[in-house]
Amino acid sequence: MAELILVTGPARSGKSEWAEHWADKMQKSVIYIATSTLSAEDTEWQERVQKHRQRRPSTWQTQEVPRKLALAIQQGQHSQCLLVDSLGTWLANFLDDDDTAWQHSQDELLAALATAECDVIFVAEETGWGLVPAYPLGRLFRDRLGSLVRQIGQIATQVYLITGGYALDLKHLGTPFPKKSP
């Protein structure tokens, strides 16, 4: 059975580095799934992406997958580990979609995970630990991401919360919350 690992936490907590650590331990061919696209005008984002690239082994492949994540997972092979960085950025690409279209995209992703042959590691941002966003789009992002992270966490083989310089193994430390009925 394929491994599904969820790595979540606040900004600058080391989520990506912890996910990279696990991908390296898998002893498989790693495909880094970048869910954003580079913009020539956004030099600060380009610098962040470059730091991530420098940290990764040169043997890892990179694919830009801003929307078709379910397809990338379906195409993954048993000998591969997909490191998806990040779930929040992927979700942001769907913020203009209405609830029905978003539900369809989310269901496609969850269905792909249920039948995945490859190992998958998700990096996911934690939102909602502070103030309620003052604008509707911010609340939509927070609510959709919180719900998706919860659903993936329920089916993941491992879940880590990265905070304060520590990786907390939530599957061993926590008690699973009852699953939501459909």
From TrEMBL:
Transmembrane feature ranges:
none
Q: Which Pfam families match?
A: CobU (PF02283)
Q: Which reaction(s) are listed as its catalytic activity? A: adenosylcob(III)inamide phosphate + GTP + H(+) = adenosylcob(III)inamide-GDP + diphosphate; adenosylcob(III)inamide + GTP = adenosylcob(III)inamide phosphate + GDP + H(+); adenosylcob(III)inamide + ATP = adenosylcob(III)inamide phosphate + ADP + H(+)
What pathway is this protein a component of? Cofactor biosynthesis; adenosylcobalamin biosynthesis; adenosylcobalamin from cob(II)yrinate a,c-diamide: step 5/7; Cofactor biosynthesis; adenosylcobalamin biosynthesis; adenosylcobalamin from cob(II)yrinate a,c-diamide: step 6/7
Record has Lyase as a keyword:
no
Q: Which InterPro entries match?
A: CobU/CobP, P-loop_NTPase
The family this protein is said to belong to: Belongs to the CobU/CobP family.
Q: What does this protein do?
A: Catalyzes ATP-dependent phosphorylation of adenosylcobinamide and addition of GMP to adenosylcobinamide phosphate.
Per its record, how is this protein called by name? Adenosylcobinamide kinase
This chain's source organism reads Leptothoe kymatousa TAU-MAC 1615
